[in-house]
Amino acid sequence: MQTKFLNKVLITTFIIFTVGYAGISSAHTAGAILGAERSFTAVAYVNCFDDAGQIANSLKARIRDDSPPVPGLLVNLQIFKNGKSIVISDTVSGDADYSPFVKLVNGGGEYAISVNKTDEGARAFVIEYHCNSADDSHVGTDIDVTQFGLP
Question: Going edge to edge, which strands form the sheet with 102-105?
């Protein structure tokens, strides 16, 4: 019972961060806390759409671990679309620096993203994500969180 309540609180927190950050800046960021269970996973869909005369071409993103350092406990970000995928990890646990950006070029439309971790232990994370045109101009970007917790 307590786990279900905690999951609902975490989902709400993730959505609030996502909506709050996306609405106030062209830098789209979202963050939350992955629960302690090893298989705790966040999943969202980012819709990249044509905007202001620019045609959506790709999604780029990076991840930052905002928790205290724990050796071997890393956060990972995956991007998927139509059989293509790319992955990045924040390779320094708890340093509060972003990983490098990864970019999946697969046109406009819906990209799936997921965040997980390498071991047990709660991890606070932030992702930064941007939909871009072929010339790296910013285009329309929306996000919809579909899972935050255990599958």
Answer: 28-34, 123-132, 58-65, 102-105
